[in-house]
Amino acid sequence: MQSLTDFSGRALLVGSSGGHLAQLLALAELWPRGQRHWVTFDTADAVSQLASEDVTWAHHPTTRDFPNLARNTRLARKVLAEQKPDVVVSTGAAVAYPFFLFARAKGIPTVYVEVYDRIDSRTLTGRLCRPLSTLFCVQWEEQQSLDPGSVFVGPLL
After folding, report:
1. Which pTM was predicted?
2. Which of 28, 31, 118, 130 sits CB 3.0–4.6 Å from 11 for a disulfide?
3. Tally of domains within the chain
4. Running along the chain, 157 residues long, what does each successive block of 10 average in pLDDT?
């Protein structure tokens, strides 16, 4: 069974700002600076937390916003071509989906970590990204019954 530490090389870390970004930041040490590139929203918290990082700003909002889904789909194609990551990692939310679609099409491994605050139900993005995930991780043991075959990683925060 694979784990998060099995994915080395250049990582593309994709996620919404706020709590999703906080959980991704907890994983950042797995890839040294210079081996990671971030995709998130241009919000005050993200700008502050990623001030010294390599970042591409995605379009938001994403939930049920089809114009921004289209923009992020074009962005995903562009960023994957430019960054050439060895793995795409996300904690959601909707911004992850187009990146997982293109990564899967290019044969790039994808790692999805279901969010910490969902214990007894699955997120929409988790449901969409699950079939596209090389490794699907959960932070609560209870989540494994919702996603059989998922890997328990424990709380990131």
Report:
1. 0.95
2. 31
3. 1
4. 88 96 96 96 97 96 85 97 98 95 98 91 94 97 93 94
